[in-house]
Amino acid sequence: DGGITQSPKYLFRKEGQNVTLSCEQNLNHDAMYWYRQDPGQGLRLIYYSQIVNDFQKGDIAEGYSVSREKKESFPLTVTSAQKNPTAFYLCASSTEDSRQGTQYFGPGTRLTVL
Amino acid sequence: AQSVAQPEDQVNVAEGNPLTVKCTYSVSGNPYLFWYVQYPNRGLQFLLKYITGDNLVKGSYGFEAEFNKSQTSFHLKKPSALVSDSALYFCAVREAGSARQLTFGSGTQLTVLP
Known about the structure:
Chain A has strands at 4-7, 10-13, 19-25, 31-37, 43-51, 54-57, 64-66, 76-78, 87-94, 104-105, 109-113. In chain A, strands 2, 4, 5, 6, 9, 10 and 11 form a 7-stranded mixed sheet that branches. In chain A, strands 1-3-8-7 form a 4-stranded antiparallel sheet, with no helix packed on it. Chain A is globular. Chain A has no helices and 11 strands. In chain B, 0% of the residues lie in helices and 53% in strands. Chain B contains no helices and 12 strands. Chain B has strands at residues 3-5, 10-14, 19-21, 24-26, 31-38, 44-50, 56-58, 64-68, 73-78, 87-95, 103-104, 108-113. In chain B, the strands form 3 sheets. In chain B, strands 2, 5, 6, 10, 11 and 12 form a 6-stranded mixed sheet that branches. In chain B, a hairpin with a 5-residue loop joins strand 7 (56-58) and strand 8. Chain B is globular. The termini of chain B are far apart. The interface between A and B is medium-sized, with 26 and 23 residues.
């Protein structure tokens, strides 16, 4: 987990609320990623960013939004439009050569909707 | 299109015995292949990767994996299992030269019995 921090570790949200998950890295990596993990489904890509001020949708972007204003930071907002947001959220980063580069993961944030 | 399959949800092995966690993949061209391990409520840790070259890849904690192009497999192996190896293991693939991001398998829960 070293080099990538995610906060908070646990997050509880009421239905209808937006929440923002933090991801910071000090590895000087260009690319950053957000994944959602549900039991038995592996990891699914939400959004990714290969450079500051640019990002692309992944496989399950609906109901989520991101920003990439700084190289070190890639926050994820879970909006009220996300119908089933309870999950474990993982942030990752990789080197400039993201096609071959290894992705390194943060410790994760567990979001629960009450 | 690219995909990866981990045919076993659960693998049990006795401590000291060799272990194998299976992974098969599907890509149109050449694959980049990765193995990660996840301990409970933690992020993923990188174990090893195959990009090109020697089909036998050695990684962290005594793990290795063999790339078999004809069988489209990349099974993870360890000669002698430890109880501390008990965790969730993920295989991932990316097609070389593709704009698509990493695709993860659904995971295999390894339990090493003392």
